[in-house]
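Task 17 of the worksheet. Students: predict the tertiary structure of the chain below and write it out as structure tokens. Keep your answer in the requested format; marks are given for formatting as well as content.
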Amino acid sequence: MKRAWRVVFIEEEARMGGVEFSTLNLATRLNRNRFAPLVVCPAEGDLPRHCRERGVPVAIVRRPRLFSTGIRVGQRIITNPAALVFNAFAFLLAAVRLAYFLRSRADLIVTKGVDAHFYGGLAARLVGLPCIWHVQDWVNEQRGLGLYPAILSWGARNFALQVIVDGEAILKQLDPSACQRAVVIYNGVDTDEFSPHVDGSSVRMEFDVPLNVPLIGTVARLVAWKGHHVFLDAMATLADDFPEARFLIVGAPVFDTEGYARQLRVQTRRLGLNNRVRFAGFRWDLPQVLAALDIFVHPALEKDTSPLAVVSAMASGKVIIASAVEGIKEIIEHEREGLLVPPGDVEALAQAIRRLLAEPDLRQRLGQGARARATQELSVEQFVQRCEAIFEAVLAERS
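Model answer:
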């Protein structure tokens, strides 16, 4: 009997985020008759723990710390040259260390995360293994002295036999030659776990929000481009008109964004919303959190490709207001699966919320439309099947 193909996922983080959740979903659900998954992380953390709990093998291969190459100043990102030089050596060391580990342990490498694409791709090349990049984060083109799209395309051509992207917006960053080996596969969620039938009353009790009180929330990492500050400004304009409404922010800072998280709390106090905004932090009970909401808001300021929080809200049958940025527009049609507003437009966001609070029939119709789109196109089963097809095609090509 032919043994299963050994697929090694190279993760650059052990903390949970959208990319890590997709890895957990994919590695857990791979057909074990055809694929034997192994998840490689740089440290212990929530991802390794949950992989083991679900029967997915994990290996810890430590790598040098990498420093952010971009410093955000207002709306601009300034490149840190010292970080670029340091990271170049760190990438090489990480690749050599990973290549040594991968020998005789893998048939296929799948890299997850921008940094992992490069050191994981180089490691795969050093040991002669086929590599697939699974690119799930759109990165601002200003990164890397404005050369990020060119660097990404160069890496895709030299390190990856196939590139999976989770939105057309990422595909557009690749040059024509790199695009030839790229395919769009949108993220998927468990449409039974995330469902209109989930009970969110326990979450409302936790935050002391009665069932008849409007609860408006957003779920995302606490980073500036996700637009939490826009959400708070919009909530402030609604405060007098809807004095009973409550607002929920779910998510935690990552990497170097603790300062932004502190700014949000300062903004909340300045706007006089202390008693109405709840910062819930990172939550594992996301199905219940989403079930508790009346309106889900995704106020991203930049391109955002099939974010799992939005897909989860769609599967939960929530009415969604989202910024009309590239990526979001691929999965939500305005007035059919949700309402789209210009990114950063506080008044447009507030007006959309006012409209939904005043029109319960519209909330129901849009929530049903979102649920239908999720079940038809964005289920985790479809996500896994499409990824498996790519894995098999690459492995067959190298056999």
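Marker's comment: The domain at 201-377 is CATH 3.40.50.2000 (Rossmann fold). The chain has two domains: 5-188+379-398, 201-377.
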